Amino acid sequence: DELLFKQPESSHLGDCPICFLPMPLELSKSTMNQCCSKVVCNGCVHANQRRELEGNLQQKCPFCRHPTPKTAKESEMRMMKRIEVNDSFATFQMGLRRHDEGKGNHEEAFKYYTKAVELGDVESHYLLSTMYREGKVAKDEKKEVYHLERAAIGGNPDARYDLGIAEWHKCRHARAVKHFIIAAKLGHDDSLRSLKDCYRKGLVSKEDFAAALRGHQAADDATKSPEREEAVLELPKLDAPMDAGICNEECQCCH
Prior knowledge:
A hairpin with a 4-residue loop joins strand 1 (30-33) and strand 2 (38-41). The chain has eleven helices and two strands. Helices cover 56% and strands 3% of the residues. Strands 1-2 form a two-stranded antiparallel ribbon. Residues 237-245 have low confidence and may be disordered. With 255 residues, it is mainly α. Helix 4 (106-118) packs antiparallel against helix 5 (122-134) and helix 9 runs antiparallel to helix 10 (206-222). It has helices spanning 42-55, 72-84, 88-100, 106-118, 122-134, 141-153, 157-169, 173-185, 189-200, 206-222, 226-234; strands spanning 30-33, 38-41.
């Protein structure tokens, strides 16, 4: 439990390799480049696009400066080159592509996620836990929990939140609160909302709740910059995620 409940210094997304600010948790606010498998914040992407437009320059990757691929086929070829040199993130991304194609090529996705985990990719742990839970390849609760815990230890706040929800539904409130606090301090909104529910129910102290609020705000503030704010206005935006709570109709803890 000591390793499981240790507060990570940052989320599994790390820092933008250009501006070195922490990456936002919203994936719509960053861009993956197939040429080098680097994920760059949209603030840097937008700044690079503006520079190219103003200088009438060829479109290139903001990190490695390779020309951007013109077709989906070229994009996949570049990704395969990264996979061949054991790039963990490219391997994970190919798993995502296989997962999303048609009705979902789950066996191929599973293969890529498993390889990515061996290479150290945290997000692949989380997606493998989902596959084991849903029985996409084989339903296995022990492997589901194992991969969920590995993802949480690696700094994935979604995995941490899921662990908290699982503990809550088992009426292990103290463990659930620990998970919610850790994820909230990484800037995870759903965990903060769940923690507010716990505070209203008297399951978390005022001091711990206040510390989580401060940590959440600090994590959110650390991801902000003028360039990123400008990118939000200029680049396409996705709808905001739905609100989340910690109880459902099957939960007997609060009824």
